[in-house]
Amino acid sequence: MIMFSKSQPNKPEDQWKVKLNQFAKEHSKELAALSWGLFLEKGESDETIGIDLKPRPHFVYCPRAALEKLNQKVDNYLQEMVGIVNAHQPDKEVLMIGIGNDQIKLIHFEPESPPPVCFEEVGKDVDTLLGELEQRLSEFGIRP
Description:
alpha+beta, four-stranded mixed sheet, globular
């Protein structure tokens, strides 16, 4: 008989993923606003927003080619992630990649209001949003 159980988020090496999920939930509107603001600045791009947690949390761009290369190195284990990245609709959903301790985590959600509306409602420029969210990430205590 095969038993199915929940994954083990209590493993110490996975706690950063749990905390990053919690952060994304609590700051979904601001993340959506940032996502849209960065999209407006860059336009259509082959890069996905990333949150690199080392040495301190900061936002980066992850080129699609690097994700595809990583997928090949891990025997297509990340194929679903590559598919989600390729199908991303920036005007409807938020897509970011968390990076920590040689692991990655997909942050993908559809906010209550579309990202363009979130950007308007938050009413801050991209640089301000980046600074505030990086500060909040540091304060949130997410450590890989």
